[in-house]
Design brief:
This is Beta-phosphoglucomutase. GO terms for molecular function: beta-phosphoglucomutase activity; magnesium ion binding. InterPro entries: B-phosphoglucomutase_hydrolase, Beta-PGM, Beta-PGM-like, HAD-like_sf, HAD-SF_hydro_IA, HAD_sf, PGP-like_dom2. The chain has about 220 residues and is an alpha/beta fold. About 45% of the residues lie in helices and about 10% in strands. It is built from 9 helices and 6 strands. It has a 6-stranded parallel sheet with strand order 3-2-1-4-5-6, with helices on both faces. Helix 6 links the parallel strand 2 and strand 3. The mean pLDDT is about 95. The protein binds 6-O-phosphono-beta-D-glucopyranose and magnesium ion. Magnesium ion (MG) binds next to loops.
């Protein structure tokens, strides 16, 4: 049966959290706010606007709307500098192998990401052409944990949500997949991604037998 496999981008296909961290840290420093790696972890799956709101909240800062917009643009310019250096070598282990397996089996393949830079990143790592549908931060009103991004991806694939499987590294994303009535597969630590239906440390632990079971379910 044709199932819809929806991939998150950041933390699932590529490890961009390190670049988000560098860019947010630089921005936080410029406004005298301390920003740690642990705080960066809490921004996984969180939209750009919400991320800056949280950083300001943690630093007890209030700024004007126009300064807020300026800071968001500065952060993104900085982040894009890192993205610009990316190539295929940054695709996380066995992601391509799993993608190719699913394509071979004629499954629906979509991207469901909170990032507004998702299309740029997919092109940089040469994966853009593998996706039948792409839904990203430009296409949704409500961010994860709202299920909008995954429901839109299912719609674009023309596959019912209950026949979709989501790969996600963030808690908010797992919650979004569960609310969308999809099978949620956490990529990361099981202690963090407790709400997922399945958790794997990375794609090297996902074998063809497991994928076949999902397809034939
Ligand atoms: C998510 C990341 O995928 O995209 C978040 O996990 C990020 O850390 C969000 O804030 C928005 O990304 P961008 O590229 O639009 O700033
Ligand atoms: Mg992610």
């Amino acid at each position: 049966m044709k199932k819809g496999f929806i991939f998150d981008l950041d933390g699932v296909i590529v490890d961009t959290a390190k670049y988000h961290y560098l860019a947010w840290k630089k921005l936080a420093q410029s406004i005298d706010v301390h920003f740690s790696e642990a705080e960066n972890e809490q921004l996984k799956g969180v939209s750009r606007v919400k991320s800056l709101e949280k950083i300001l909240e943690w630093g007890n800062k209030t700024i004007s709307e126009s300064d807020f917009m300026k800071l968001m643009a500065l952060k993104n310019d900085d982040y894009l500098g890192y993205i610009n250096t990316m190539n295929e070598s940054e695709i996380l282990p066995d992601v391509l192998k799993v993608l190719k397996f699913l394509i071979e089996k004629e499954q629906g393949i979509a991207l469901g990401s909170a990032s507004k830079n998702a299309r740029t990143i997919l092109k940089k790592v040469n994966l853009f052409h593998h996706f039948e549908a792409i839904v990203d931060g430009n296409d949704v009103v409500k961010g994860k944990p709202n299920p909008e991004v995954f429901l839109s991806a299912a719609k674009a694939l023309n596959i019912n949500p209950e026949h979709c499987i989501v790969f996600e590294d963030s808690v908010a994303g797992i919650q979004a997949a569960n609310t969308a009535n999809m099978i949620s597969i956490g990529i990361g630590e099981s202690s963090v991604l407790q709400e997922a239906d399945f958790v794997f440390a990375d794609f090297t632990h996902i074998n063809s037998q497991f994928l076949n079971e999902l397809i034939n379910k």
